[in-house]
Backbone:
């Protein structure tokens, strides 16, 4: 009995020591796991069962195996009990921290996207407003400028468009100020239009539109300023055109009516005189028809309705034809009319009929204002540098004063003292300029001095833009 109980006591002692060592190992493993954040310590849980199994194998008794099994169960339970709370705490803390960081990163990214979108939208709106031709100024109820586009800075000046100042509204005047107060105090989105002038180095006529943007105490309004100098000048030119056209039409109509009434009343019995009256009526009706035709041609060109039918034109041949057609008039006036020079290869893409009309008009003017016995010459050259054909008409006639040269190609303009020499519509040179420049992309000009003759010239590109000569 004593011999049998001694091994059992030894086994119990060894088992207790093993359990104590295992407990210390589990505690150390738990502390290490908490420090580094590992998961469930399965290695520590296996220490107790392994030690108990070794002890039972050494003694090889049923009781030792029972004790080993109990020790294994105790080891597993102790490991689970010691480790589970820490495992849960560490995972919960890590998850909470990770969630907080994720929310913070998501919030920062969302704010960055919103900030970028707002900045991009503001840049787009600023670029859009800067692209407008009209001045746009955003002002509050205190007349202070909140925003001004590029056109506003150019029209009013950088000083007047500084944010937070009232200089812009003050420059526009009291009418605009009252309009701003009116639209901001109104409830129905009222808009107002004001015509005024900007006072500065020069008086600039403007039309101002005041549009409410937001209402209330802190409301603001958009002030749109349109420079109408171009429109006013166009209106003035239209009025001048109507007045001059009426005058030019009235002159031949008055002559036609006077001579027609005399013939109708039987006041002219002499056949020679009757023939003279008939000739005058025919001349004035021809002049009237020519005036109307040229007005219509100019109107079609300026409105963009006229189109040139391009083809390859030999300007040397064309100029020769025009010279031959005018020889009878030159012979009647004893004026020498000839081709002085015709360069070879003077071909260009152009509308032949319109080009002939230009050359004949220049020749007709030269013959009109050249005294009897004078000379008129035509030259056709090729400008290789400019890639253009240049046609010139020279005369030794009256010449043109220097002050009249800038206005010579305007509608209905005629040089003083020239009206007594020859009749004209005042539209011929203007029509030539429209044909050459508007329809063919060329140039036309004049070189002249009073009493020293004139040289009228025009240049046509050899190849039109987007079109090649055949």
Residues:
């Amino acid at each position: 009995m004593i011999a049998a109980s001694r091994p059992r006591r030894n086994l119990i002692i060894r088992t207790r020591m093993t359990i104590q060592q295992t407990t210390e190992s589990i505690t150390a493993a738990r502390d290490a796991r908490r420090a580094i954040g590992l998961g469930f310590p399965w290695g520590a849980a296996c220490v107790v069962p392994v030690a108990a199994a070794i002890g039972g194998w050494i003694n090889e008794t049923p009781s030792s195996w029972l004790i080993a099994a109990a020790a294994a169960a105790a080891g597993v339970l102790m490991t689970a009990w010691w480790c589970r709370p820490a495992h849960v705490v560490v995972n919960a803390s890590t998850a909470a921290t990770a969630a907080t960081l994720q929310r913070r990163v998501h919030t920062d990214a969302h704010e960055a996207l919103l900030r970028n979108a707002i900045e991009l939208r503001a840049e787009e709106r600023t670029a859009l407003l800067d692209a407008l031709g009209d001045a746009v100024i955003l002002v509050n109820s205190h007349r202070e400028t909140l925003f001004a586009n590029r056109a506003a800075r150019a029209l009013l000046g950088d000083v007047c468009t500084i944010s937070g100042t009232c200089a812009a509204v003050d420059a526009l005047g009291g009418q605009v100020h009252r309009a701003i107060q009116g639209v901001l105090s109104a409830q129905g989105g009222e808009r107002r239009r004001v015509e005024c002038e900007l006072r500065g180095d020069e008086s600039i006529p403007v039309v101002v539109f005041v549009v409410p943007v937001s209402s209330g105490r802190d409301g603001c309004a958009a002030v749109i300023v349109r420079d109408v100098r171009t429109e006013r000048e166009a209106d003035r030119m239209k009025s001048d055109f109507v007045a001059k056209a009426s005058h030019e039409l009235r002159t031949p109509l008055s002559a036609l009516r006077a001579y027609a009434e005399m013939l109708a009343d039987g006041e002219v019995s002499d056949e020679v005189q009757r023939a003279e009256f008939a000739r005058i009526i025919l001349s004035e009706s021809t002049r009237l028809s020519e005036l109307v035709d040229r007005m219509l041609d100019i109107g079609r060109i300026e409105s963009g309705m006229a189109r040139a039918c391009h083809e390859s034109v030999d300007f040397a041949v064309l100029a020769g034809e025009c010279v031959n057609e005018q020889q009878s008039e030159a012979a009647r006036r004893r004026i020498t009319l000839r081709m002085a020079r015709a360069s070879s290869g003077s071909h260009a893409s152009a509308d032949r009929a319109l080009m002939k009309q230009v050359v004949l008009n220049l020749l007709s003017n030269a013959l009109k204002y050249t005294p009897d016995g004078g000379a008129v010459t035509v030259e056709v050259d090729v400008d290789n540098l400019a890639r253009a054909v240049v046609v010139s008409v020279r005369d030794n006639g009256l010449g043109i004063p220097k002050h009249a040269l800038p206005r010579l190609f305007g509608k209905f303009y005629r040089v003083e003292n020239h009206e007594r020499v020859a009749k004209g519509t005042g539209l011929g040179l203007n029509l030539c300029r429209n044909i050459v420049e508007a329809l063919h992309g060329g140039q036309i000009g004049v070189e002249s001095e009073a009493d020293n003759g004139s040289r009228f010239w025009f240049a046509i590109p050899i190849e039109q833009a987007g079109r090649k000569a055949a």
About this structure: Residues 35-40, 85-90 have pLDDT under 50 and may be disordered. Residues 132-227 form a domain with the Beta-Lactamase fold (CATH 3.30.450.20). The radius of gyration is 52 Å. The chain has four domains: 2-102, 132-227, 231-302, 311-461.
